[in-house]
Amino acid sequence: QIYECILSGSFLAAGFVVRQIRDKISAEETMEFCASLLHADVWKIIASTTKLAAIRIGFYEYLIAVVQSAPGVIQEYDMLKRTSKCLLLDGLQEKESGVFNHLWPALLAFCKSCPECWQFVSSPHTTLYPRLFAMLRRTTGMMSSAVTYPSLLPLLMLLPLDVGDPGGIMAFADEFLCALWRGIESDAMIAMAVPAVVEAYLECWKYFALTLPNKALTDPAPLQRHLLEHHFLPACLWFLLGSNLRGPFSHFAETFATAVSRMSGHAIGALIVNSFWAPLFQALLQALATGPAPPPPVPEATPDNPQ
C-alpha cells in the first residue's frame, strides 16, 4: 500500500509540476521534462501494477497533463504506440468505478490530440470494439456512469468508422446501442444513473441515425429505417408498456420529434417515418384492449468476450 501511494502521488505531483512550468520554460524543456517520466522503465511499472487503481489514477492524470502541455511527447512513434495500448485497449477493460473519472478525460484528450492513434489498434472489430461493448454492459454504478455516459458521444465522433461500409456501420451501431440498452434494462442499474444512460442512448442514436448518415452515406435510408424499427421502436414500447421508468420517456418523445422533422424532409425519409407508426399504434391499441403484451426485445448483443 505504501508503494502504491508513493507511485500514485509521484505521478499526480509530476502532472501538477507540468501544468505549472509549461508557461515558464521553453516548449523544448517542457517536452524533455515530460518525457523523463515516460521512459521504458515507467511503462514496465505501469504494466506490472494494473491491479492497483491508485497508480492508474495518478498515471492517467499525468498523461492528461502531458497531452495538454507537451503533446509532441506523446506523438513520438514508440510513445504513441504505448499510450494507445494503455488507454484504448487496457483502459476500456477498466472495472474500478473510481478510476473512470480519470480514465475518460485522458482517453478523449489523447484521441483528440493524436488522431493517428487508431492505427496502433490492430483489428478493432476483435480488440477495441468488444472491450467497449463489454464496458457499456457493465457500467451501472453512479460513479462510473456519471462520467462514462457523457463521454460516449465524443468517443463516437472520434472513432475511425469505415463510412465506405454501410453494412459495417449498421453492425457497429447494433452492437453499440444494444450494449448501452443493457444498462437501462439491468437490475443492477441504480435509479440515479438512469437519466444519464437514457440521455447517452438518445445522443448516440441521433448520431447514428441523423448525423453520420447525412455526413457520410450516399443512401442513408437503410440505416435510418433499421435504427428506427430495431432500436427506437422497441425502446419506445419498453418505456410505454414494460417499464416502471415513465419519466425518461419524455426524452424519447422529444428525440423522436426531432428525428421526424429532419427525416421527413425528403420522400424516402417520410416513408421510413410512416413505417414506424403502424406497429406503435398496434401495440398501444392492444394494450388498451387486452393489457400490454411483452415489449419486443432489442437485438441480441454478443457475449462479453473481448480478446
Automatic annotation (TrEMBL):
InterPro entries: LTN1/Rkr1 (IPR039795), Ltn1_N (IPR054476). The lineage of its organism: Eukaryota, Discoba, Euglenozoa, Euglenida, Spirocuta. It comes from Eutreptiella gymnastica. GO terms for biological process: protein ubiquitination; rescue of stalled ribosome; ribosome-associated ubiquitin-dependent protein catabolic process. Residues 3-157 form the E3 ubiquitin-protein ligase listerin N-terminal domain. Its EC number is 2.3.2.27. It catalyses: S-ubiquitinyl-[E2 ubiquitin-conjugating enzyme]-L-cysteine + [acceptor protein]-L-lysine = [E2 ubiquitin-conjugating enzyme]-L-cysteine + N(6)-ubiquitinyl-[acceptor protein]-L-lysine. Component of the ribosome quality control complex (RQC). Keywords: Metal-binding, Transferase, Ubl conjugation pathway, Zinc, Zinc-finger. Belongs to the LTN1 family. This is E3 ubiquitin-protein ligase listerin. It is an enzyme of class 2 (transferase). It comes from the Eukaryota. Pathway: Protein modification; protein ubiquitination.
